[in-house]
Design a protein that fits this description.
Blueprint lengths: L1 E6 L4 E6 H4 L9 E7 L2 E6 L6 H8 L7 H4 L5 H18 L11 E4 L4 E4 L7 E2 L4 E10 L7 E7 L10 E4 L6 H13 L3 E12 L4 E10 L11 E8 H4 L20 H12 L4
Parallel strand pairs: 8-12
Antiparallel strand pairs: 1-2, 3-4, 5-6, 6-7, 8-9, 8-10, 9-13, 11-12
The chain binds zinc ion.
């Protein structure tokens, strides 16, 4: 049995053998089975309720880092495995009680299902994913000078500009969400909404569904709540942007491991440069 963590010094995912963390495994409820690789079975352990002292003695000077901050520095396999672990641990931690009758639930199938402990209920609960859309909106009113809409969310670090995004409401189609969020956040009506790609996003339990859409009006009206500023940019302007995390006081593109960046990069490759 091994456990996944991150070595702080080199930002490389590491495995810890069971013998090194045996003192932390006080409840098997906190274990999640991730699968097997060439070395054997792999588990994730939720240590969020452990005392710091107990953790430090097991970690031997290593420390925890938020996956969101280092995922882009890991290789794709490690990043995917840690994201999978994070998503399952988060789901188990937040579903300890039955949503139907309120009784405690119990982990089964290695943390991939939880069952209500009240035998008269016994409801099974499975991990869920919350869909969200993310969209690059194009201005094609001038065919030789296409532009795209990028915005700065009030939660973004420094001056990162990104595509619009939002969660899917109940009984809403993905295309309806794209249209609603575009209008709510920036006052832009859209059509020709076309699916591009998707990305699981375990912060905490979403999947981002990427679209491209055509703007029907160009006057931007930011909502002033989620969005602080938004502008139309030509591809040539975007090529002058900085990189996420470089600390400059100028506009920068989304991080390279994000679907937002994929949407922007693929758009830039398809439109004329300046
Ligand atoms: Zn129940």
């Amino acid at each position: 049995m091994r456990w996944r963590g991150i070595d702080a010094a080199i930002s490389e995912a590491i495995h810890l053998p069971r013998a090194e963390i045996v003192d932390l495994i006080d409840e098997f409820e906190h274990l999640v089975f991730l699968g097997c690789d060439q070395s054997g079975p792999l588990f994730a352990l939720d240590v969020s309720t452990h005392e710091d002292d107990a953790l430090q003695s097991c970690l031997s000077g290593r420390e925890f880092i938020d996956l969101r901050d280092v995922a882009w520095r890991l290789d794709a396999q490690d990043a995917a495995q840690l994201a999978y672990a994070r998503g399952l641990v988060f789901w188990n931690r937040h579903h300890r009680y039955c949503g139907l009758c309120g009784s405690p639930t119990r982990s089964e199938y290695g943390g991939h299902m939880r069952r209500c402990t009240d035998s008269s209920c016994a409801r099974m609960h499975f991990p869920r994913t919350d869909p969200a859309v993310i969209m690059l909106i194009e201005d094609r009113s001038s065919p030789d000078r296409p532009r795209c809409l990028l915005a700065r969310n009030s939660r973004f670090p420094n001056r990162m500009m990104s595509t619009l995004a939002g969660f899917v409401d109940p009984l809403e189609s993905l295309e309806e969400t794209v249209a609603r969020e575009s209008f709510e956040e920036c006052g832009i009506r859209v059509d020709r909404i076309e699916y591009q790609a998707s990305q699981p996003w375990p912060f905490p339990s979403s999947i981002m569904l990427g679209f491209r859409a055509r703007a029907l009006n160009l006057d931007i009206v930011v909502d002033g709540a989620e969005i602080d500023e938004a502008h139309w940019f030509e591809a040539g302007q975007l090529r002058e942007f900085g990189e996420w995390g470089d600390g400059g006081d100028y506009y920068c593109l989304p991080r390279r491991d994000s679907i937002a960046r994929y949407l922007v990069d693929s758009w830039m490759q398809q439109v004329p440069g300046i």
